[in-house]
Specification:
The complex is a heterodimer of chains A (81) and B (393). By secondary structure, chain A is an all-alpha fold. Chain A is built from four helices and no strands. Chain A has one domain: Non-ribosomal Peptide Synthetase Peptidyl Carrier Protein, Chain A (Orthogonal Bundle), CATH 1.10.1200.10. In chain A, 57% of the residues lie in helices and 0% in strands. Chain A starts with a helix and ends with a helix. In chain B, 26% of the residues lie in helices and 26% in strands. The chains are: A mainly alpha (81), B alpha+beta (393). Chains A and B meet through helix 3 of A and helix 6 of B.
Chain lengths: 81, 393
């Protein structure tokens, strides 16, 4: 799994949840939930989908490491390698 | 044989457009199956059938607007003699946009073969060509045109329905949504003498309960605090029946079960408040699964008829990125709406000590024709007590 695979995976899932927000328009270092205007149920949907695709447990205790798009990317890269 | 009628999906609905026929002629149906979709001001609504049997025939062509109460299908119930499924292919679906007369009801005893040639209005050549390649429901075709989506990307192996298209905010349905909200809320403010109560609620215990529950759970079985809100309101509403039911024809009818309307924000504008049925029943994990299913469907614009027609009380909550409090407007003919704001860390005095706690505002708007502030306060207090003791949920 390359870094660009993971980036594409996150982008695809966010596109399903927030199709009205172009990925290029967001600040990758800002809070993901604010940038995509997603609520906690949407976030849970995102985590569920990514956890399933990458076979990762994505524990709730790690949510703080998934705050921004870049944080989430780093977290997934670190935990799949 | 019985007739399946265009259902009423709310007091303000006069007619609907049949946009999807999901069961073919002659196929079996079971109570609770979704057999059609109807387009209304509120979006595409999935329609359930209420008995077992076979779908004998569709009585209304796709794309036809018919009044509430109009027969739209014949259902052959299981106790009537079996009629072999017709071997002829059904007549081609007719174009949706042209106004069409409603088909006469076919007497069930007539032999079905040969079929009388159905009335075919003139068809645009490109529509005919499109039908040869791909079967697309009118609602899906319209949405595709609105958002500029290329239908050929979806293949020809099945009937393309609205749910197969990407979710994109479309200008026209949203203005219809705005109209529906406007009609319901204006009626509420015109007819319902609201009174309002508020308190703050310490949600620290509820959040700790969720954290503990979720610690060893995979994402798909995690709880959200919203499930606790739902259960707390449902339990309190059972104990205080004057907040759970419908006010119609100058009188209040309490509901035997709690079908909790969930105010759900829709991307691109508007909201919907469909019912989570029997919200006091089952354990929290099952409730959470149903809540997830409902939210996911509603965000795609798919409701079931019963979900829109029968909420008995509504909950509106701002989630974790809102503001401290919200006071709702009652959805007629309901008589109460509970609002829960976004929790934030505040200083609270507990056992003479100042401690940081997670606190939100909680409000009740209720109908003064049915209840008074004293009972309202006890009802709100009951919700708070449940949420402060999440192990009781």
């Amino acid at each position: 799994m390359t870094n660009s695979d993971i980036r594409a995976m996150i982008t695809t899932q966010l596109g399903r949840i927030a199709p009205d927000i172009p990925i290029e328009s967001i600040d990758p270092k800002a809070d993901l939930r604010d940038e995509f205007d997603i609520d906690s149920m949407d976030f849970l949907t995102l985590i569920t989908a990514l956890g399933r695709e990458l076979s990762l447990p994505m524990p709730e205790a790690d949510y703080d490491q998934m705050r921004s798009f870049d944080d989430l990317l780093t977290y997934l890269q670190t935990n799949t390698n | 044989m019985s007739q399946f009628l265009m259902p009423s999906l709310g007091a303000d609905m006069a007619d609907g457009i049949l946009v999807e026929q999901l069961i073919a002629r002659g196929d079996p149906v079971h109570r609770g199956d979704i057999i059609a979709a109807v387009e209304t001001q509120k979006g595409a609504i999935e329609i359930e059938v209420f008995e077992d049997g076979f779908l004998d025939d569709w009585l209304v062509p796709l794309g036809t607007k018919v009044a509430v109460g109009t027969p739209i299908a014949n259902i052959r119930t299981s106790d009537t003699p079996d009629i072999p499924k017709p071997v002829d292919p059904p007549p081609p679906p007719r174009p949706s946009e042209a106004p069409q007369p409603t088909d006469p009801v076919v007497p069930p005893d007539l032999p079905e073969d040969p079929m009388p040639p159905p009335y075919q209005p003139p068809v645009q050549p490109e529509e005919l060509a499109g039908q040869d390649r791909q079967r697309v429901s009118p609602a899906a075709r319209r949405r595709a045109a609105q958002i500029g989506f290329d239908l050929s990307a979806l293949g020809t192996d099945r009937i393309i329905a609205l749910g197969d298209l990407p979710d994109t905010p479309a200008a026209e349905p949203m203005s219809a949504m705005r109209q529906a909200i406007s009609a319901a809320m204006s009626r509420s403010k015109r007819e319902i003498p609201h009174y309002y109560l508020s308190d703050s609620i310490d949600l620290t215990a509820a959040e700790d309960f969720i954290t503990l529950h979720n610690a060893n759970q995979p994402p798909d079985t995690r709880l959200a605090i919203g499930a606790l809100y739902v259960r707390a309101v449902a339990l309190a509403a059972q104990a205080f029946p004057e907040f759970n039911g419908h006010f119609e024809n100058e009188q209040f009818a309490p509901a035997p079960a709690v079908h909790l309307g969930m105010a759900i924000n829709l991307r691109g504008g508007g909201l919907a408040a469909p019912a989570l049925h029997d919200a006091s029943e089952g354990d929290l994990d099952a409730l959470m699964a149903r809540l997830r299913d409902l939210v996911a469907r509603v965000k795609k614009g798919r409701f079931r008829a019963r979900e829109l027609a029968d909420p008995t009380i509504t909950l509106t909550s701002l989630g974790d990125r809102g503001v401290r409090g919200i006071t709702g407007v009652i959805f007629p003919p309901q008589v109460a709406i509970v609002g829960i704001g976004t929790p934030s860390v505040q200083a609270a005095v507990i056992d003479d000590q100042i401690k940081p706690r997670r606190i939100a505002d909680i409000t009740l708007a209720a109908d003064h024709r049915v209840s008074d502030g004293h009972r309202g306060a006890r009802f709100l207090r009951a919700i708070i007590d449940h949420l402060q003791h999440p192990e009781t949920l």
